[in-house]
Amino acid sequence: MTSGDGTGMYMSTLGLILHMLLVALPKDIWRLLTLKRKSIRGQTVVITGGASGLGQKMAEILSLQEGANVAIIDVDEIKSMETCETIRKQGGSIKYWICDITKAEQMNKVADEIRNTFGNVNIVVCNAAILYFGHMMELTTQQLQRAFDVNVMGTLITIRAFLPEMERLNSGQIVSISSVTGYFGETYGMAYCPTKFAVRGIMECLQMEFRDRGLNGIICTTVYPWFIRTPMILNMGMRPTSRLLPFMSVNRAGNQIIDAILKEKIVSFIPLTVGMIVMARK
Description:
Blueprint: H1 3-34, E1 44-48, H2 53-65, E2 69-74, H3 77-89, E3 93-98, H4 104-118, E4 123-126, H5 141-169, E5 172-177, H6 193-212, E6 218-225, H7 231-234, H8 250-262, E7 267-270, H9 272-281
Parallel strand pairs: 1-2, 1-4, 2-3, 4-5, 5-6, 6-7
């Protein structure tokens, strides 16, 4: 490498750093400080895994507080029916569909039915997930495969079912609930952490694709929550390992996630301290 080449590389690197510090970072900070919640009254929101836990709480908030038409997709018909009845009694607009999100034909059919019922879908929340807990050789091949089928392929299949109409209109929002484990591996997390890494990758690829194709009207929001006291987590016997970061309540997590969705955040760590830990690790 010649001295001229070295000088050019140095100047290029310096220019990039100055651009980040003086242009990109101030713009991001300004956007963060001026974010406002959008109104979704009368709009349609789809939530997978919406019959219980975090999905149920988001359905309640979106329907009862934000005035949205909510379509929940789940495999548990009894809990789906109970959730919808509870919300309807309080004046909410909600309906459920029973569907295995790993089956593309089922999901495409459900997507058509939701559009026929509520009209265009404005927001899709990919929330459904399953959790198996164990060391590498304690987990069965079937458990590992099922985790990837639901958490990864289920997310892709859900997005693909609703994306064509969003692309046609160049409008909509896709939300995926990843996890702090989308950044950190964990001793017992072989059947969960890698799937949440994959969800992060899906959303980053999708965001770049929309940008390069000029589909700037479609927003991608990826949420990275800390552990939440959902039935899925508690039924596995998981408990906090630190008093500094206790498990979050479903109510607190749900409200913070809805705030991130309505402010159209690209990335949201729930709570914010999780983001600080991620940045510190990098």
